[in-house]
Amino acid sequence: MYQPKLLLCTDMDRTVIPNGIQPEHPDARKRFRKFCKQPGVSLVYVTGRHQTLVKQAIKNFVLPEPDFVITDVGTKIYQVIDDKWLELRSWEEEIDKDWHGKNREQIQQLLSNITELNLQENSKQNTHKLSYYLPMNIDKDKVIHRIEKCLNQEGIAASVIWSIDEPKDIGLLDVIPRNATKLHAIEFLQQRLRYKPHEVIFAGDSGNDLPVLCSRINSVLVANAGDEIKKLAQHSAEQNGQVEALYIARADKLNMNGNYSAGVLQGVWHFAPDFRDALRQAGIFP
Ligand SMILES: [Mg+2]
Questions:
Q1: Deepest in the core among 72, 103, 106, 147, taking most CB within 10 A?
Q2: 152 alpha carbon – ligand 1 mean position (Å)
Q3: How far is the CA of 223 from the centre of ligand 1 (A)?
Q4: How many angstroms separate the alpha carbon of residue 13 from the centre of ligand 1?
């Protein structure tokens, strides 16, 4: 019998973890867990969190166990087999090329005379992620420019990613290999596991999901995402000629509110007609 397959890739915070201000439908996560157990469904978490924080979230929020996990904003990929997390060395080799044979410590050394940068704690660093704090009163663009100039001179292809830790009111600056993004990591898994384009779905809610949301990968933006990101995603998808590959979840579909995992399931209904029976099995009806 023909068994359709689906590589369901989803962001965690405010996408399947209901840690935003909007309400979660009381049955959403239960149905999501049920759906993920259906034959043919492989679940991939794609997150900025590191391994320990992913495991914590799975436990605290009773999330389904994943088959793969892309962590640390794309710098690590793990395969999960019977609770064991095995790092994909082939991904490490792939992104190693960007750093021109240099490791994190060597790159840190290269940036040591940019004194505005304060190194983050050891737990926040990994082999392919060099993370700093940058005080909010410092001109971040100037600092980023200096970093880029310095790395370019050494032939290092890196992405410098700036974000804000809002509760702590401090800037965060990550230096990672240029190809170590959520988008490239998903494409890498897709190819390695031999999924066709229509067999892959991504779900997300915010800025660092945007490159995937407006790519050719079928993507759902959950309803609880902010209006600004909805507009931006739509606009970028139009520019990339990928309007058909973006679905924005809405409150009036599938008898749930479209927030968090309810939105993810809406996206599956929209993009994967082969899985509508599996969705019905999980208690989801149009
Ligand atoms: Mg998120």
A1: 72
A2: 30
A3: 12
A4: 4
Q: How far is the CA of 162 from the centre of ligand 1 (A)?
A: 15
Question: Rounded to whole angstroms, how far apart are CA atoms 203 and 248?
Answer: 10
* Residue 213 and residue 202 in contact, taking contact as beta carbons nearer than 8 Å: yes
Cα–Cα distance between 230 and 13 in angstroms, integer?
17
User: Rg for the chain (alpha carbons), in Å?
Assistant: 19
Residue 11 Cα to ligand 1 midpoint, Å, equals 6
Distance 182 CA to ligand 1 centre (A): 12
- Residue 260 CA to ligand 1 centre (angstroms): 10
Q: Left (φ > 0), alpha (ψ -120 to 50) or beta: where does 120 sit?
A: beta
Rounded to whole angstroms, the Cα distance separating 237 from 245 reads: 8
* Mean pLDDT, residues 142-147 taken together: 96
Tens of pLDDT, residue by residue over 169-219, are: 899 999 999 999 999 999 999 999 999 999 999 999 998 899 999 999 999
- At the second CATH level, the architecture of 6-75+180-281 is 3-Layer(aba) Sandwich (3.40)
Specify the CATH architecture of the domain 93-177: Alpha-Beta Complex (3.90)
Nearest to 173 by CA among 210, 128, 119, 102: 119
